[in-house]
Amino acid sequence: MHKFTHLELEPYKTYYQTVIAETEAGSVSSVSDGVTVVVVGDLIRGISVLDGPLCSTSVNNVSSSSPVKHEVKSRVCLKDVDFQLSTNVLQAHWTIPYWRKHILKDIFWVVEKKDRYYDKWKALSEYQPMNATTTHLHASDLTLFAGRRYRVSLKFCAGKFCFKPVQSDGVFVVPNDPKTGKLSVTANRTQIEITLERFVDSDIESVDKARDVLSHYEWALADKSFSNHYLTEWKRLPPPHSQNDKLVRN
Questions:
Q1: Residue 197 · residue 176 · CB < 8 Å
Q2: d(C-alpha 133, C-alpha 37), whole Å
Q3: For position 143, what pLDDT does the model report?
Q4: Does the pTM of the predicted model rise above 0.90?
């Protein structure tokens, strides 16, 4: 055994040892498989953790009990979601720089919940190991509360040496229908004008954030029958003109 000392080794570079045995008949050499220098607790730059599932297609398949179709473009899969309906499942996916994949051999995950009033996060459990070759997480059997914000924290390790955890920016849980306000309709032979109070999410306390949940509005014409028979397909409402927290559309 030989111990090399007084070396100046650079972080994240791999070093090899070569041993040469010589005799009168000749020599033979052997090279080690190498050892990479790491910094415990260091931030591995270039890792991106995003909330939500992987987008396998450009549009999510959304089932609906509505007898008419919604616009397909309103169902585009988002790479990083801000809101979700589920109260027992949390998903995330991530990318790792290719020049660090050979180091990050182990991954541990935990779900964190944001404090209701302060910018503080609390882990819901201890870090749990997962398959290091995967790039997404589907955590189930959770208890997520409506109106609260959750995120996934990942801790990457090289054997027993672990780096600074990396987190997603979080997702709000909004399982309930939004609150609607007053709606008025005026019409003549050439146009219909609709004025309505903006919808707000019923789970989020902050009014501004409760409105941000609603990315867009859709409209359709229906008759006054018991089943509200739809006369048209749903259409996305173009960006409206805002008047004192109301939406006005001609």
A1: no
A2: 22
A3: 96
A4: no
Whether 187 and 163 map to the same domain: the answer is no
Q: To the nearest whole number, what is the mean pLDDT of the chain?
A: 84
Give Cβ neighbours of residue 137 (< 8 Å, ≥ 6 apart). 90, 91, 92, 93, 109, 130, 152
Instruction: Report helix, strand and coil shares of the chain as percent, to nearest 5.
Output: 5, 35, 60
- Residue showing tokens 């999410």: 201
Q: How far apart are the first and last CA of the chain?
A: 84
Considering its fold, how many domains does the chain have in total?
2
Give me 78's structure tokens.
């988002």
Q: 70-81: per-residue pLDDT in tens? A: 554 445 678 899
Question: Comparing 138 with 179, which gets the higher pLDDT?
Answer: 138
Whether residue 2 lies inside any domain: the answer is no
- Residue pair 88/143 in contact (Cβ under 8 Å)? The answer is yes
> Which of 118, 144, 173 lies at the terminal end of a domain, its last residue?
173
Q: Scanning the structure block, which residue is given the tokens 């990083």?
A: 80
pLDDT of residue 74: 47
Cα 114 to Cα 6: distance, rounded to the nearest angstrom: 46
> How is residue 78 annotated by DSSP?
P
Kindly report, residue by residue over 226-238, the tens digit of the pLDDT: 667 888 888 887 6
Dihedral of CA 45/51/54/59: which sign? negative
Show the tokens assigned to 121: 């996060």
**What residues contact residue 89 under an 8 Å CB cut-off, 6+ apart?**
138, 139, 140, 142
